[in-house]
Backbone:
């Protein structure tokens, strides 16, 4: 694991689209490559269902709901969490769905993902978010380790919840 870099986390801004979209595309390509290397039959299903680029409308949605964050190192965007609140009928508290968590490959394992998760957990606590959920690639052990280190319970290598059950 590398040394932690100095990271500043802030809310997503409209002007972040180009860089967030580039990081998104890089991580999606990396994900699809990992599926291909694993020889999984999920590749064709995932390839058809996942956008290779971040649609502007989706980015606008994440910006407008106000629950997404980016990480900056030396004033450059190096990671992001795109999230949206979800209200279920039988829950008193809101739920936050962490849709995408991504960090540029050069700065992984250097505290960027941890800083993003810490910031969104703090933000959620201040807004009475009762639970946070996400899904993860079952072949990505680093993602599972990151989520567990942030206090999430990872189940079946596909779902993670904070706080744990």
Residues:
């Amino acid at each position: 694991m590398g040394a932690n870099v100095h990271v500043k986390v802030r809310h997503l801004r409209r002007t972040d689209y180009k860089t967030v979209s580039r990081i998104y595309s890089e991580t999606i390509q990396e994900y699809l490559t990992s599926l291909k290397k694993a020889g999984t039959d999920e590749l064709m299903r995932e390839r058809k269902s996942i956008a290779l680029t971040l649609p502007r409308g989706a980015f606008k949605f994440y910006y407008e709901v106000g629950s997404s964050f980016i990480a900056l190192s030396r004033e450059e965007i190096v990671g992001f969490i795109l999230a949206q609140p979800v209200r279920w009928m039988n829950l008193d508290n809101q739920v936050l769905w962490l849709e995408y968590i991504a960090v540029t490959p050069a700065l992984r394992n250097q505290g960027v993902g941890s800083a993003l998760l810490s910031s969104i957990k703090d933000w959620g606590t201040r807004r009475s978010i009762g639970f946070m959920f996400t899904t993860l690639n079952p072949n990505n052990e680093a993602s599972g380790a990151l989520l567990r280190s942030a206090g999430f319970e990872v189940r079946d290598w596909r779902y993670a919840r904070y706080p744990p059950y």
About this structure: The first strand starts at residue 8 and ends at 11. The CA atoms of residues 45 and 75 lie 37 Å apart.
